[in-house]
Design goal:
Helix content: 10-25%
Largest sheet: 4 strands, antiparallel
Strand content: 15-25%
Number of helices: 2
Strand order of the largest sheet: 4-5-6-7
Number of strands: 7
């Protein structure tokens, strides 16, 4: 098939498609939306109502408001009744990233310090001055 024949065929097909779709446009019928009750097997999570402590005491069923507590910086989170931490910033909720961070800190010879100034998952290089690094990026000395 010659090039001009191919171009003519392509233009004819395109024009037919466009004319066919233009002829089919109609006004959509309104959609009726109804509220549906949640199934009984779905439970609404109970959000914690008490703040978490700033130190490494075992805290469950609590929240940390980073803007109002500690140094006023960092990331807010909740701790459920089972002790699972859920950050309000989704990028900090990767269990794989936490495990990788913890393994790297342990391999570097750092000591587990838990919660420091409200920041979770903290490790420290202990010495005359201890250098603390937490999973959420918080760093301090002690």
């Amino acid at each position: 098939m010659k090039l001009t024949a191919k171009i003519t065929a392509a233009v004819t097909l395109a024009a037919g498609f466009l004319l066919g779709t233009a002829a089919q446009t109609t006004e959509a019928a309104p959609v009726k939306v109804e509220a549906v009750a949640s199934p009984s097997w779905i439970s609404t999570p109970k959000l914690p109502t008490r703040p978490c402590t700033e130190d490494d005491t075992v805290d469950r069923n609590c929240y940390w408001d980073a803007a109002k507590r500690g140094n006023g910086k960092g990331y807010s989170y909740i701790v459920d009744a089972q002790g699972n931490v859920l950050y309000l910033n989704p990028k900090l909720n990767s269990q794989a990233d936490r495990l990788t961070f913890n393994a790297a800190q342990k391999k570097a010879g750092k000591e587990w310090w838990g919660t420091v100034d409200g920041h979770r998952f903290c490790w420290a290089k202990v010495g005359d001055t201890s250098y603390v690094t937490c999973f959420d990026g918080f760093k301090t000395t002690s």
